Amino acid sequence: MAINVAPADVQLVVGAPMGYWRTVAWRLRRDPTTIGAGLVLLAIVLSAVLAPVLAPHDPTAGSIRLRLAPIGAPDHPLGTDEQGRDMLSRLLYGGRMTLLAGLTPVLVAFVLGTVMGIAAGYAGGFPNTLIMRTMDIFYAFPSVLLAIAISGSLGPGLWNTLISLSVVFVPRVVRVAESATVQVKSLEFVAAARASGSGVWPIMRHHLLPNVLGPVLVFSSTQVSLSIILAAGLSFLGLGVTPPAAEWGLMLNTLRGSIYVNAWVPALPGVAIFLTSMAFNLLSDGLRDAMEVRV
Amino acid sequence: MRRFPTVIAIFLSLMVVAGSASAQGTLRIGMTASDVPYTGGQTDNGFEGFRFVGYQVYEPLIAWDLTRGDRLPPLVPGLAESWAVSKDQPTKWVFKLRRDVKFHDGSPFNADAVVFSFESIKKKDAPHFDAYGSGQVSFRLASLKAIRKIDDYTVEFETDKPTSFVPYQVVYMVVVSPTQWQKFKDWRKFAEQPSGTGPFKVTRLVPRERLELEANKSYWDPKRRPKVDKLTLFPMPELTTRLAALRSGQVDWIEVPPPDAIPQLKAAGFQIALNSYPHNWTHTLRLDKEPWNNKLVRKAANYAIDRVGICKNLLNDTCIPSTGIAYKGHPWFGDPKETYTYDPAKAKALLKQAGFGDGKHPAKAAHLISTSGSGQMLPLAMNELIQKNLRDVGLDVDLQPVEWNTLLTRWRAGFKTPDNEGLNAWNISWNFLEPWSGFGRFFHSKSVVPVAVNTMPYINPEADKLIEEAERTFDLKKQDAVLAKLHEIIVDDAPWIFVAHDLNPRALSPKVKGFVQPQSWFVDLTSVSVTR
Amino acid sequence: MWAFVARRFLLAVPTLLGASVIVFAMVHLAPGDPIAAVMPADASRAEIEAVKRAYGFDAPLPVQYVRWLGRVAQGDLGRSIATRRPVIDDVRDALENSLVLAVASSVLSFGLGFALGLVAAFRQGKAVDKLASAIAIVGVSVPHYWAGIILIIVFSVQLNWLPAMGAAIDGGVVDYLRHMALPTVALALIPLGVITRVVRSAALDILAQDFVLALRAKGLVSRTVFAHVVKNAAPQILTVVGLQFGFQLGGSVLVEAVFSWPGTGYLLNLAIFQRDIPVLQGVILVLATFFVLLNLAVDVVQSVVDPRIVRH
After folding, report:
1. Architecture of the domain whose range is A13-294
2. Which of A263, B17, C74, C237 is most deeply buried (CB count within 10 A of its CB)?
3. Taking the complete model, does pTM exceed 0.80, yes or no?
4. How many whole angstroms separate alpha carbon B344 and alpha carbon B357?
């Protein structure tokens, strides 16, 4: 959703694999915005991974008597939530949930989508039609709607969230992968390889995969931001992670009633989502520019 | 120049529109229900439905006197002028009906209407049987078996056994206009153009959005003709939405304001109405399955709850802790042995005694809760705290939120349906307005679903005996003493997790005058006026 | 071109059918018995079975699907379990409200996005470009439901300028607009970001074409260049515009939840917590159909604007 994919726009830079990747790295090194975004992202991910070490309090422990303490309160630098739990700790632990719920579906989509897309692109004919038309059916639903509909049917919970978001993103990756595969397939050296009797697997590994992986990688990175926003959004609606787990979207929901008491503590989880999402977007932009993929 | 009339017309229409927005004497109320309560008579959405629709558009034969806030409301004549149990046949009650009362459609109120209304609830094969309405209210009329018209202004109810509870059940049946129903022969269509005898009549129903009513200027009791011209009801299940609507002047009155916002509201000049009323907020436990089938575990849960924390800190003193069905000072409270203070250590000890404390045998349960609703207070926040309290002593409760009316529907079907099979409790607030609602419908062995709503099911011959004794006792003071004894037994048995008694907080705009908050779930809107 | 249009049209049919299968299946995935919600407490086994038969719930799922589809084709989306009103009525009312929001939000985001994107492209590298790009990336990254809450905090709670909830209940046009203001802005943020980036990117590509560079070097009137850019960027942008409108219509659930705006998202949310299956099915199907038709329209318009489009 961040950037839409019109398959015809996917262009490839095909060249000797080694030189290409080195060029990409060289470009990335000279791009301060992307490096900055990468560092921020690293910090966010590390803070989530190291939450048990960094968090000053237990994220589910709290005293109801200390609820809604403001930012800068003693012992609670970012305040407390509506149940009296420490915000800093909940933000750190919440990051784990949100990142997990946001990244996993994209990862799943990356793997499944690439496989299905290459298969469809390479096979052509009926299998292609079957797979692509099936994907089209899922495209009939706006992403948010599909996620909510599936989650609404399956019920709340982390697993159901992962399933529903994966269903949203797989068709998109399939489209990109298939389109890229079709383009590569038509190139002469591939035809030559086939003519010379190369098996399917070697062709896939040496020619298709490296050239398809680029656009798919870039595309997937652009979807992470949306996935995080959607995962948090599902929890916000009560369809994702359930209380008392800490998760940024869920925290936004439960703190919503408190904006009349203390306006800024309820805004914190949203700031976290925003920063993470922005960092991923900047990073994926940088990646796209460096890899010269128009996706 | 030719455009002048158009300009005038637009100007005038804008003025009309602007004017109607602040029409004098219009009371606009934001309810916690997520949809307009059923207007076909026997309403839904629990007591909020009765409060704003059932008892405003319609009336029962016997009514509550809601005009004072300093005492529990007594029963007074409604559409019946008098009633008495027949001396020689104690299962028959004769009601003398009020004369010269007309329905909103102009047709006269008489015995036929009463019979019609009763049959719409109880007579399944009648063409005018209202399956939906019957589902809402039939269990409240559990003892009423049959009705007979004696003459145009006299009816006779027949009960299955002699019981003093009859008036307490009749109070929940409102009377609908048979003439109006016959025009449509369909309850859904009737609900769009309903006709009752109440002080307000429905003028427009916009599903999911609003219900518009106007004062019934020819209401039979001149002392209770509404002071406002119009009444508009808005479903607003979202807490912050209600608050925002009140603050921005879109409504004049909201139910259950966010307790956190109460100091601000007071500072801004809004009126906060509070009063005790026969309400308790509980988790009603399933007694035939683990873990709640063990009395020690139930007691442990009751000792694990930080009630003061909930009422003082979470809810800003808009409730008082509850350690039983009634509150201390109520004639039914009695002197129970268990005091259910906040004592996690004792809770853990009780659990250990019950065999759950060693970590090898976890106590798990799934509880159905609502997202808002009549009497439910702040269910999500309260339940999160309760869940934490219980986890801290070793009881693992999983919360499943559904919409309020959905919760009520599933509750009435009982635990043993496929939908509800995996549940261990309902979080529903109960009323104890009278002995049937407080005890009879829950704790008698004959009240098991589907006859009434003993879903737990609670089977205790001691309780059966006391309830039957109370039913046979027509002297109120003696009845109170019997019920107090019953209360002690139940509190010590702990079939529920007792949490809080709500103080019924409402927030009103300074323009609303004349409202008296009774010690009741219901309100009298006829004395209310809204100044400019 | 007409062959292309006809083909796309024909393709829409199986897509819609497939979507309907998914809608039907999805909702029946849900745990729980839809009948239990309808029956009164003292219904006997026999009565329940009779009602099941009346609703057709006793038939095997494929048969139920075909029957349901038949009714849908005639415009009968069934009755809401919670309100017993026809679903089509509720959906229609809600759709009107969502459309108002989606159109207003689209006008705002597309207009502003287009302008920002073009400005950024024509002034590439300058401060204006950086500002526009920054706005765009913020728009794309912000969780719109959070933005809604922030808008409420600032404009409603602190400044008390604008109302925080719902569609206007009483009052005229001005009041309605005041109620619409905050949700519209919240909903427009992400599309604004997307459109700005796509327009900028497309415009830059065209501006980089050799003959355009030549034209600009010669100092020729920028209006010609401008028109050329717009015309050639149009097809690409059009697809995105279509998708973003779909996002604003179908994806307004989160914004509607924050502002209690009585649209399809609000209805969907309520139906989920009420387990009101007919309403769930009705809303999702209507929105999906809308979306498919929208995409179809976009494709057709695109092929008219740029006949060179070749789709495989």
Report:
1. Orthogonal Bundle (1.10)
2. C237
3. yes
4. 13
